[in-house]
Amino acid sequence: VYTYVCELTKKHQGINSQIYNSSLISFAIYFDEIGNNEKTDQLLFESYTNLKNNINKTTITTYFFVIDILGMRFGNQLKFKESQEFYNESLELKKQYFGESSIEYTKSLINLGISYSQQSDYSKSRFFFEKVLSINKNLNFENIDNYTIALQGLITGYSFEGRYDLSEKYLHELIKINKL
Description:
Blueprint: H1 2-13, H2 18-33, H3 37-52, H4 60-76, H5 80-98, H6 103-118, H7 122-138, H8 144-160, H9 164-178
Helix pairs in contact: 1-2, 2-3, 3-4, 4-5, 4-6, 5-6, 6-7, 6-8, 7-8, 8-9
């Protein structure tokens, strides 16, 4: 079925179309769910390559989606260098397309913060989490989800470093925010 759908959309829409690449991503997710990592990666990289060569207003959100999926996949495989390359690409493009104060940009900061936390590099993760806090305070907490994730990242990082006073500071902030 997937071959038929992909070939049909490729024939009628072309390999650079949002529809074709969304189909590839959908089937990659299916293959991931049944445990076929090789096919999953093949489809994701095909979509990534297609979209990278033709970024436009129609394809940009799909491109962000596939970049973030690849970053997450590599992170889950403990391939942090590759994961961070995708997350950094996403960060720079989101900065370019949406600006540094956008929710989209802060999501990429969160992804990088989490990636460095997974490696126990809390000083680097703090940089990204603190930037999210700064951006969101300027937005009057429009994006409370990213703000609370950043607070949780700081609480965890400081706790693992034995810096309980700072961990507690951010815990109080988290409690205060959740009362809003």
